[in-house]
Amino acid sequence: MSLKKCVCVFHRAWDRMDATMVETTGEKLLYLTDEQLRQGIEAMFFAYRGFTADPDRILQDLAYGRAHHRAIHFINAQPGTTVNNLLNILGVTKQSLNRVLRTLVEDGLVEQQVGRKDRRERHLFLTEDGRALEARLSDAQRARMRDAYRHAGSDAVVGFRRVLEAMMDPEMRRAYTSLREGKE
What is the pLDDT of residue 15? Predict the structure, then answer.
């Protein structure tokens, strides 16, 4: 499905979600029918396909997958992060992550350094080539998000982020908040 079709499907689904705000005891409550929620879920699926399509094409040319992309993204976001921290963020098995990291190290995109305080820890850094690949992948996603945000308007940007944050499990929200605080 093309980007335009994904965006159109997404917007049609949200446009049909005529949610009503009801005032009760000073609170605003949002009521959605099961059908409206289903349409929102479907919009998320299609939006995710669109969001990952551009990086997938880049990764396919390199014989990498989304696991490689996620590892590269979070290593870039937290240079020097440990393997254990990356395991917690990604929620994958140690065996799965080691397979991805081995490939990225062998291909010269990631380097590992032994911890200074704890020699059992491995700290991860992107190499120059790794940072270049991360930039290509992120540029594609930023362009898509920028266009969608521009189309939706500034109120939608804040609302969308709030919805995404509210959907996170508490542990993931803490990891997300910690990551964001490290950037600010």
Answer: 53
